[in-house]
Amino acid sequence: MAEHVKELLSAYIDNELTEDDVHRVREHLKTCEECRDSLYELQLLKENIYYAYENVEVPVHLETSIMDKIYALEQETNPRNYFAFWITGFVAMVLLAGMAALVAPFMYFIARFIYKLASIGFKIWHTVPIVMSAIPYFTFMLYGGAFVVIAISAWFLYRLLLSGPYDRRELL
Ligand SMILES: [Zn+2]
User: Fold this and answer.
1) Residue 12 Cα, ligand 1 centroid: separation in angstroms?
2) How far is the CA of 39 from the centre of ligand 1 (A)?
3) 19 alpha carbon to ligand 1 midpoint, in Å?
4) How far apart are CA 25 and CA 35, in angstroms?
5) Rounded CA gap, 23 and 40, in Å?
6) pTM, full prediction
7) Å from CA of 101 to ligand 1 middle
8) 44: CA distance to ligand 1 center in Å?
9) What's the gap in Å between 22 CA and the centre of ligand 1?
10) How far is CA 163 from CA 1, 32, 66, 153, 169, in A?
11) Distance 50 CA to ligand 1 centre (A)
12) d(C-alpha 133, C-alpha 95), whole Å
């Protein structure tokens, strides 16, 4: 009896043997019941594996969620996004420039208005000493009022510090 062909049977089922080996296996199987049994068991095993593989249920949402993740990753690294970023920046710059061009004629009047306000303020500032000297005891009342305000503020600050979550009496 020729050598058994068990080690070739798997490849035989999968059609992975050379013609010579196929011939050898077929000739052997005609005479060897042991190898025929092995072939049958191997076929059964492969069918079961195939059947199990076919019946594995891949959750429907799995594929979509994987694709979503891949898509999100692509979006993150997509050069088009950088392009969109720069385009957006450019458009924003153009819009700002256009708005500045539209506003520019009015800027002169706005600047003149600000200048007028500033000069009025400056004039008022210069009249303060004149007003102060014109009103009797003005300076005295000003300093007196300021002292009262500061004293009241200090007292409130003192009370505020005392009412804190910690006893600050030791600090004061
Ligand atoms: Zn055999």
Assistant:
1) 14
2) 10
3) 19
4) 9
5) 18
6) 0.34
7) 95
8) 18
9) 14
10) 108, 103, 59, 15, 10
11) 26
12) 55
Single-letter amino acid code for the residue at 94: V
Q: Alpha-carbon distance 140 to 70, whole Å? A: 78
Retrieve residue 76's tokens: 């993150």
Give residue-wise pLDDT tens across range 85-136: 778 888 888 888 888 777 777 777 888 888 888 988 888 888 877 776 777 6
Does residue 77 have a pLDDT over 70? no
Helix 79-134 / helix 60-77 crossing angle, nearest 10 deg: 60
Distance CA(128)–CA(44), nearest Å, equals 110
Q: Which residue has the tokens 């050598």?
A: 3
R_g of the chain, CA atoms, integer Å = 48
How many A from CA of 24 to the centre of ligand 1? 11
